[in-house]
Amino acid sequence: DAMVIQNPRYQVTQFGKPVTLSCSQTLNHNVMYWYQQKSSQAPKLLFHYYDKDFNNEADTPDNFQSRRPNTSFCFLDIRSPGLGDAAMYLCATSGGQGFEAFFGQGTRLTVV
Amino acid sequence: AQTVTQSQPEMSVQEAETVTLSCTYDTSESDYYLFWYKQPPSRQMILVIRQEAYKQQNATENRFSVNFQKAAKSFSLKISDSQLGDAAMYFCAYTTGGSTLGRLYFGRGTQLTVWP
Fold this sequence. Notes:
The structure holds two protein chains of two kinds. In chain A, 0% of the residues lie in helices and 53% in strands. Chain A is mostly beta strands. Chain A has one domain (4-111): Immunoglobulins (Immunoglobulin-like). In chain A, strand 9 and strand 10 (101-103) form a beta hairpin. The relative contact order of chain A is 0.35. By secondary structure, chain B is mainly beta. Chain B is built from no helices and twelve strands. In chain B, strands 2, 5, 6, 10, 11 and 12 form a six-stranded mixed sheet that branches. In chain B, strands 3-9-8-7 form a four-stranded antiparallel sheet, with no helix packed on it. In chain B, a hairpin with a 4-residue loop joins strand 8 (64-69) and strand 9. The mean pLDDT of chain B is 90. Chain A binds chain B through residues 31, 33, 35, 40-43, 45, 48, 50, 55, 57, 88, 90, 92, 94, 96-98, 100-101, 103-106, and chain B through 4, 33, 35, 37, 42-47, 50, 52, 91, 95, 97, 101-109, 111.
């Protein structure tokens, strides 16, 4: 089945050690999103790609970067994770304006 | 600023009864789309229902329907004949065209409990 896959499901990283989360999709959607979701809070949009165009939210820390090498894959890089970056990270895709977003199961990041 | 407000952090309903979840939003865009998403304890977010702002008719999907009041910027979700499987966190969300093309914003969510 077509879907959005996030790897790994659980990631433990050390304080300050760079970490990369990955997302792949078989939906051929042109929009890919990264959200940060902390416990009992709304998903917070970090950035999104519309095709190759990268769109950063104004309040996304510089510590968070993203790469989209092709339509199918998108990566979230956290250059120096802090304790406050521990959260669930959700990847989503969309066919464009007005279309529903399809979400992956998320990666739960723990920072020790 | 683009905002989505869900004023009910928690709601509960008896099985087979009806419950309404509230959502208001604020946007200066004229072209936008509204969504309700459900996030069960397994955490994968799934779409419940979608509404185009240019359509006056309220969207319905089986037991789920919306009351879309464009002038009031209100978008509530009604769940009829509630089932135990409806228990989840529900998020109201919207996406717009224009300067924020592609961005998808969420409210803080409403935790729905369904009692047998």
